[in-house]
Design brief:
Order of helices and strands: HHHHH
Number of strands: 0
Oligomer: single chain
Strand content: under 5%
Distance between the termini: 58 Å
Shape: elongated
């Protein structure tokens, strides 16, 4: 059953058929078009090492390039902090036993959760056309 009648109304009024649907075929861009592609690239920019993909594919798009450099820088900073923190934890575990080490493991979990929250916030802002700035990292992205 369709919402629009296929025959003129019986009261003698006029009937205007609805316009035909837009053509869809192999040459028609998908819904979302370039904006959907740009949003995908911005989201990939903040997903760990996958930030390299938008940097290589969309190197002419300044906004995507900024987000890719910002995301890669954030990942590298997270990697360095995680390595240093794990070395510190292993030294403390060897020196003091389990007492203080347990507190350090809780802090380690908070570091990981903070990184995931920062990624989610950066993706949400990037898709809206905004930039989430991180100290030192975003300054480097501005210069590149």
């Amino acid at each position: 059953m369709t919402d629009t009648p296929s025959v003129p109304p019986p009261s003698g009024g006029t009937y205007t058929p609805p316009p035909p649907p837009p053509p869809s075929g192999p040459g028609t861009p998908p819904p979302g078009g370039a904006a959907g592609d740009r949003n995908l690239m911005i989201a990939l920019s903040y997903l760990w090492f996958l930030g390299i993909i938008p940097l290589l594919i969309k190197k002419d798009d300044r906004e995507v390039k900024w987000h890719a450099i910002n995301g890669i820088g954030l990942f590298l900073a997270y990697l360095i902090v995680t390595i240093v923190w794990n070395v510190l934890i292993s030294v403390v575990f060897d020196a003091s036993g389990c007492g203080i080490g347990s507190i350090l493991w809780v802090v380690s979990c908070l570091i990981h959760i903070g990184y995931v929250v920062a990624i989610i916030m950066a993706i949400m802002k990037g898709v809206r056309g905004e930039k989430m700035r991180f100290p030192l990292i975003s300054d480097f992205a501005d210069k590149a």
